[in-house]
Amino acid sequence: MVCAAVVSLLLVAALMACTATSTGTRDEGPARSEPVASSPTGAASPTPRVRRADAVELLKADPEVDPGVKRDLKPCVGDEYPVDVSYGDLTGAKVSDIVVNVLTCGDAVGVGAYVYRAASQEKDAGQATQGYVNVFRNETPPVYAEIDRGDLVVTRQMYDKGDAVAYPSGEEVVTYHWKDGTFAELYRMHNDYSNTVTSEPPQALGGNPAAVGDGTGSGAAPGA
After folding, report:
1. Nearest CA to 187 among 143, 145, 152?
2. What is the spatial distance between Cα 160 and Cα 147, in angstroms, rounded to a whole number?
3. How far apart are CA 163 and CA 71, in angstroms?
4. Cα(141)–Cα(110) distance, rounded to whole angstroms?
5. Which H or E run contains 61?
6. Among 1, 46, 99, 184, which one has the highest count of C-beta atoms within 10 angstroms of its own C-beta?
């Protein structure tokens, strides 16, 4: 009887030891982390190198620029020319493209917008000026060109008869994308401006909103 009891106790102890060991392995060890699959990413496009250019000399030496624009391209004050210059990636070249806007001195009206691309030695060497070739021009004022997220955006102010320079009737915005060696129109947008907006402060239109509504300035509602 005593032997049977001892054997039973030994069996119970062994079962408890196995259960405790098994449970401890599951509950106490560090959580197993599954390997995270890394998604392949394409190599980032290299940023074009900015190479400064003399925009005024570039325009004057460019046979594509209208002679009238060249003739009127003079300093406004001292040696400050009315030229805006931007560098950025429009054509995918290794050297940044150059966007040049020519303005008037008095009211900063854009008279010409141009894009220059770094010349390819094999293709454009004969047409290059300072290492650049003209790949876009718009000389229909008032015009202004900008770089927007890799596209060329050209804005033209629209005037009706009698509009002051500072208050155009609307604008036309055309977005171009470089494709197959040229700028192709991507989309076009036209905005009409409200003709009720003036340069006068709001109080000049009358302190009483009703006065604006009836056009008499009396403040009385129409038909009263």
Report:
1. 152
2. 28
3. 27
4. 6
5. helix 55-61
6. 99
Q: How far apart are CA 27 and CA 5, in angstroms?
A: 33
Q: Which of 174, 166, 202 is nearest to 190 (CA)?
A: 174
Residue type, 72: D
Is residue 97 a contact partner of residue 90, using CB atoms and an 8 Å limit? yes
What is the 8-class DSSP label of residue 91? S
The residue to which tokens 């197959």 are assigned: 180
Q: Give the predicted TM-score (pTM) of the model.
A: 0.66
Q: CA neighbours within 13 Å on the CB side: how many for 49?
A: 4
**For position 212, what pLDDT does the model report?**
37
Q: Which residues, 6 or more positions from 177, have their beta carbon under 8 angstroms from its beta carbon?
A: 150, 151, 152, 183, 184, 186
Does residue 30 have a cis peptide bond before it, meaning omega lies within 30 degrees of 0? no
| CA distance linking residue 54 with residue 130, whole number of Å | 8
Nearest to 156 by CA among 110, 102, 114, 90: 110
